Prior knowledge:
The chain is of the alpha/beta class and 472 residues long. The protein is built from 18 helices and 12 strands. It has helices spanning 7-10, 43-47, 55-65, 82-89, 92-103, 123-136, 160-171, 192-199, 208-224, 227-231, 253-257, 319-326, 341-344, 349-354, 371-377, 414-419, 423-436, 451-466, and strands at residues 26-27, 68-69, 139-141, 185-187, 236-240, 260-263, 279-280, 306-310, 333-335, 356-362, 381-385, 404-405.
Amino acid sequence: MEETMELNETHNNSTERLPLIPLNSVVQQNATDQMVQLVSVNQERETAPKRRKSSRRRKHAKLKEKPIILTPPPPPRRPPSALERHVWSLKPVEALAYAKEELKHAPTVIDDADLYAPLFLNVSIFKRSYELMELILKVYIYRDGSRPIFHTPHLRGIYASEGWFMKLMEENRQFVTKDPEKAHLFYLAYSSRQLQTALYVPDSHNMKPLSIYLRDHVNWIAGKYPYWNRTHGYDHFLVACHDWGPYTVNEHRELSQNTIKALCNADLSEGVFKLGKDVSLPETTIRTPRKPLRNVGGKRVSQRPILAFFAGNMHGRVRPILLKHWNDKDDDIRVYGPLPLRVSRKMTYIQHMKSSKYCICPMGYEVNSPRIIEAIYYECVPVIIADNFVLPFSEFLDWSAFSVVVAEKDIPKLKEILTAIPLKRYLTMQINVKMVQKHFLWNPKPLKYDLFHMVLHSIWFSRLNLFPIPRT
């Protein structure tokens, strides 16, 4: 089977799509401190008061008393199985064809300790697809591109998702290959946030220089390497969390139409985000890059007296309507603009979310909002108000199990909708929020099924879904 597989032609033919899932050991110190006997020279010296140890000596003594923590050695490598040897011997297009066929026969998952089935539309296909990703996927990262726009992850703030993915992807050894001939996917490691900071002229309202810059970079890649032209960008992907991310691809037709785009601004109504090809990237607020999991966790249901809460700037079309109907209108639904000082002195923004049963997550300038993932972090059931927003991982996750989606037109009926939810149903959703939380965490060292792997898996699944069936 030829590696190129005439992909230029086959993409024009019908593609068989996968059924989219509607959606230390602590080693104790084994050497005791030696006791030093003081020999008395005379009675005066023996009875004289002992000198107080210097602060440096006291500190040194404390350090000696602490147990030495050793990192356990890695487990010994097992020899690859016959299946692994076979799959690893396949050319990239052959391996993708194998994976696509395997997904048709995914074994049923009855009970899995790592996956909570009620969160998923089809946990069996998700698990098999994830296993195939771990077995097969190799990603080539283009090293071209000038810093800081390329290869400089932005790890703080509401656009941090693209930076954390870039950082963890470039540090990864399992999925990254240095041989592009072995790659199933090619990563354009640019930052939409850094692009905006570097090139946008404030108050110009002109985003074209950003898209021209990215267009020229892709043309450079296509001229230097054969991989883009081989598939016209179908096996390439980018990850962008800035609101303008979708608009930075407009000047390059293949980049816009063919490339897999993982976007926080996953708006179906704009015509840029393509359902079934592009990936909805969760927008996460990271306040402390050294501790990305800081403040994660919440209170018990009995400690959540507030029915619903929102505070934030009045961006976009939805929030002013929300404020109009619910600001100072009801004690159960606490809706503010920016949290007033008189309120925040008593209870901070995060404390409000941790004390609320439901957290209202209206769209801002664009459909995406970091409050959705914040709510999950603080174990508060998200109430999502954003028409045409494609929810993250909705090809696999059943968002109705742990969130409430309210149409923009139903904002006046918000309390009616929430109070109509039976207590048993709410308790189930709140438990599910806790269970789904691990899938939305940026771990400094990635863990199985965490946010890094979930994003990568969605990109992998999109590649499989769009992969053309070879001609016979």
